[in-house]
Amino acid sequence: MKGIKIVVDSCCDLPKAIQERFDITVVPVNIHIGRRSYEDGVEMSREDLYRRMKEGVIPTTSQPSPGKFLEIYRELAKRASTILSIHITSKLSGVYQSAMLAKAMLPEVDIEVVDSASASMGAGFLALAAARAAELGKTKREILALVEELKKRMNVFATVSTLKYLQLSGRVSRLQEGIASLLDVKPILTIRDGLIEAIGKVRSRAKSLDRLLELTREAVGEAEAISAAVVHAYVPQDAERLRQGLKAIFKCQDLFVVEITPALAVHGGPGLIGVVSYEVE
């Protein structure tokens, strides 16, 4: 019997074990260095990307082509009654638009394309919730309602070692560059309405990590339980510190530590770290 299948892009940062457990299909974003292009997470390792960035190379990214989505949708349609395609915020990437174009080319297939209005596990948690609901036999309408409700509860707070890479990619306002220009001042970022915003600054890396925990606690309030993920770019010790902090403060239904995919590391740079969370109801 055909069921509901989930598609995400590589910027959703779903752990490999989750992808395999729920048979979630991942469409890779493209990374460009000079004249060469690489499929995110397929043809370029994180280590290679960080090495090149340290050498001064500034990679760029682009969305998968509609043709790539078309190929995947056609293959999935052979064993799916419905395809739910959940993607990084359309305000920061063209992935959603590519998926919508591919959907228009397959009117005979039941495809729903969802703009997560988030990134990394902010989108990944939506896909995971949809996959779990599909496994329980929920209908497409029920799953879409669940995803839309969960979007409203999703919290993303992050900090970076420098705003240099976000600035180069155009992902934050040029006015915010001054936040990181002071000695050892670390910006605090969030995703609001699908856009990255700088919402504060603190002195020192340690204080920036503490601030991420404080903001998470403020966002979820007196929640009895939360689901959370620590997402990071090449800073495993800082990630472990945040993981331990979350465990000490909250009852976590899910708690993941995820090294972000190269396509996101391009824009945040080595040292990016964040906490994604939502209240479990």
Descriptive report:
The protein has 281 residues and is of the alpha/beta class. It has helices spanning 16-21, 46-54, 66-77, 95-104, 121-135, 140-153, 164-169, 205-220, 236-249, 262-268, and strands spanning 3-9, 25-27, 30-33, 36-39, 60-62, 80-87, 111-115, 155-159, 185-192, 195-203, 226-232, 252-259, 273-279. The protein has two domains: 3-29 and 64-152, Rossmann fold (3-Layer(aba) Sandwich), CATH 3.40.50; 155-279, Hypothetical Protein Tm841, Chain: A,domain 3, CATH 3.30.1180.10. β9 (185-192) and β10 (195-203) form a beta hairpin. The mean pLDDT is 92.
Helices and strands in order, then pairings?
Blueprint lengths: L2 E7 L6 H6 L3 E3 L2 E4 L2 E4 L6 H9 L5 E3 L3 H12 L2 E8 L7 H10 L6 E5 L5 H15 L4 H14 L1 E5 L4 H6 L15 E8 L2 E9 L1 H16 L5 E7 L3 H14 L2 E8 L2 H7 L4 E7 L2
Parallel strand pairs: 1-2, 1-6, 6-7, 11-12
Antiparallel strand pairs: 3-4, 3-5, 8-9, 8-13, 9-10, 11-13
Helix pairs in contact: 3-4, 5-6, 8-9
- The whole-number mean of residue pLDDT values reads 92
The domain count comes to 2
What is the count of helical runs?
A: 10
Low-confidence stretches: none
Bin the helical content: 25-40%
The rough form would be described as globular
Structural class: alpha/beta
For this structure, the CATH topology of the largest domain is Hypothetical Protein Tm841, Chain: A,domain 3
Give the distance, in angstroms, between the N- and C-terminal Cα atoms.
Answer: 31 Å
Order of helices and strands: EHEEEHEHEHEHHEHEEHEHEHE
CATH architecture of the largest domain: 2-Layer Sandwich
The count of DSSP E runs of length 2 or more, i.e. the number of strands, is 13
> Widest sheet: strand order?
10-9-8-13-11-12
Strand content range: 25-35%
The gyration radius over C-alpha positions equals 18 Å
What is the highest CATH level, the class of the largest domain?
Alpha Beta
Major sheet details:
6 strands, mixed
